[in-house]
Amino acid sequence: MKVKSKVGVKLLGVNLLSLFVALLGLLLIIQYLATGQILEWHRQRVELVARLVLAEYQGKLQQVMQAASLLADNPTYGELLAAGEIASLRNLIRPMLKATGLQVLTITDSQGIIQVRLHDPKGVGANISANPLVRASLKGKTASRMTQWQDSIALSATAPIYLEERLVGVVLAGVFIDKSFVEYLSRPGAEVAVFYGKRLVVNSFQNLPEKDLAEVVKSLDLGESTPGTALRVQQLKLGSQDYTLTYLPMGEEEKPWENFILVGVNRRELDQTLTTLKLVIFGVGGAAALVGAILSVGLSQGMRRQIAHLTEGTRRAASEELAGDIPVTSRDELGELAESFNAMTQALREKTQQLQEERDRSVANAEFLSMIVHDIKAPLTGVRLTIEALEDETLPPEIHQKLKGIIQRSEGLLLHLHNVLYLSRFESGLLALRPEAVPPAFLVSRLLHHFAPLAQHQGVQMTSELPPDLPALWVDEPSLERVLANLIVNALEATPRGGSITVLGRLNPEPEPGEVELVVADTGCGIPLKDQENLFEKYRLRPHKGSSSGLGLYICKTLVEANKGRIWVESVPGEGTKFHLALPVAREVTEELAQVA
Amino acid sequence: MAMGSNILVIDDDAGTREALADILLRAGYRVTLLEDESPLATAKLAPDHRVAVVDYHLPSGNGVEVAARLKALNPGLRVVLISAELPQDFDLNFAAHVVDRFLAKPFSKDAILEVVAQLCHSESP
């Protein structure tokens, strides 16, 4: 059998869709986390570079400041300076230049005039009291600063020289640092700028105009009020490039943004990394999705086959015979369902067979009964006709009366025979109802005509009071004839001589599309209330009517309900009984009524 | 020529056959009685039969087949089919071309006399 299952395809679709959605979600989460982690590493690197630069700077500066203080604290230098023995002082200090690793060593007197200048003797005698470092030391303080000096950075420090509490001069020490040390420290992609006294001293940012960096400094001025926040790693656009920037102040806590190191990493490099990451993640994800899809198709194939078998089996069970079992192809709940289905169809087959056998028996019974009824009715015709022929003979009147009685009792016999036959046909399913439009007045008058001799014989008046405009009914005519015949014969049995039987009728507009109510009313003995409840039950025993099988009213109810009608009784003991029938109006009649309305 | 018409009665039930003969003769008709249709194969049908009363259940076939044969022999003949029980699937309309009237057994004397009188007076088709 070809595997063709719509549910299976949908199942596969749902499977694949949920796989893709789950995978996509997973990939997005992975990508988000990985990107966050990379940005975090990136920030840590920027900060590390900044701290390395800062440490290097602070180390060097510390070195210069220590050298300056060491020299200033030597009492011999103060004495020589105060005594004006400059030559001795120079000779004494000269070896110190190499020992301390200084590149600049100048000593001034208390007025700021250069007395010793080891690295460049030409400047001796010049007044450098205007130098901010020297000026500070002349006031008794130590000071340091960073300046740009040609292609180098100068780190300089000054310290005052005292002799017995009296300031006698100033030591100015300095080193030059090649700018490349900054570049050496910075890793590829990380750029460094150093600001000292808000002035840009070092700038390794490539293709970045100084005015853009000045903008950065401006933004730092804004951050001065809240220095804590400014220390954060920030994303900034400098020129046409995106940078991740961080700032680190160099000492001087009260003015953190005078001197600082700015480290930036170009985002372009980062973006490349992130792109690579995305490619890797989505590549792996796509491959996983493909594998998942293949597995899903493979796994669902079994389910789809089982579903297709189930569908085909159900369709065959519904439209054809409960032929055979369906194959069980999977070992899961679907397989169990298929097994249950097979068990169910097998049980159904057995039940159907039993039912069929029962039906066959019932049909055989009905046919047998039909044969018996025929065998009774055929000779009954001869009996009746013979009796009727006898009526033409000259006989005494009382014999005539008795002959009439025999004929009329044969009517009762026929009614019971027909009841038994109808019931057996109905219960064996042989009775085919053929509803058609039946005018009730015609049928009622035919029945009254048929039973008129019997009524006359019993001294009962029988009339029809149906309105002439009563619409046609939608019923199986033989069924209605049987019902009315039973009701009339019952009424004749119940009504004493001198009584009357009336057939009434009316149109009820409710329920839609309207129904006709026929009433067979007699002035007989009536039915006690306790007997009314189960009047229409099968084989109901009627103690006061020994001759009746009790099938008549059961057949009436069965046939009326089979014709989509209702039957009920209304009776006052001693006054009479009314049997009501409500039956649907014929369709063409309801259409006509609708048109008139 | 209503009175004196020749009526053919085919019924296997002797009681019915004889009662019918009695009633029809008393009403002034001439009557031919047959137990089944076998004499029709050999005996030449009297040309003056006006009406045939045929039972559906006959020992060697059904009344409709017999009616068809009768109509073939004598197109002017009118046929009354009588039966105690017609088969469930029997459709009278289907047999309308060979059966003129149907009477369910047991019928009364008045019923058969009325039907026969009507058919004797009606024109042949």
Automatic annotation (TrEMBL), chain A:
Record keywords: Cell membrane, Kinase, Membrane, Phosphoprotein, Transferase, Transmembrane, Transmembrane helix
Pfam families: dCache_3 (PF14827), HAMP (PF00672), HATPase_c (PF02518), HisKA (PF00512)
Compartment annotation: Cell membrane
Residues annotated as transmembrane: 12-34
CDD domains, sorted: HAMP, HATPase, HisKA
Protein name, per record: histidine kinase
Protein topology in the membrane: Multi-pass membrane protein
Single annotated GO MF: phosphorelay sensor kinase activity
A GO CC annotation given for this chain: plasma membrane
PROSITE patterns named in the record: HAMP, HIS_KIN
First-level EC class: transferase
Reactions catalysed, as given in the entry: ATP + protein L-histidine = ADP + protein N-phospho-L-histidine
Enzyme Commission number(s): 2.7.13.3
Species lineage: Bacteria, Pseudomonadati, Thermodesulfobacteriota, Desulfobaccia, Desulfobaccales
Segments forming domain HAMP: 301-353
Boundaries of every Histidine kinase domain copy: 371-587
Automatic annotation (TrEMBL), chain B:
Entry superkingdom: Bacteria
InterPro entries in the record: Bact_response_regulator (IPR050595), CheY-like_superfamily (IPR011006), Sig_transdc_resp-reg_receiver (IPR001789)
Response regulatory domain: residues covered: 6-120
Gene3D superfamilies listed in its UniProt record: 3.40.50.2300
Swiss-Prot/TrEMBL GO biological process terms: phosphorelay signal transduction system
Signal sequence residues: none
SMART domains attached to this UniProt entry: REC (SM00448)
Keyword Transmembrane recorded: no
Entry keywords, A to Z: Phosphoprotein, Two-component regulatory system
Record Pfam families: Response_reg (PF00072)
Modification type 4-aspartylphosphate: residues: D55
Keyword Ubl conjugation annotated: no
Name the record gives this protein: Response regulator
Annotated organism of origin: Desulfobacca acetoxidans
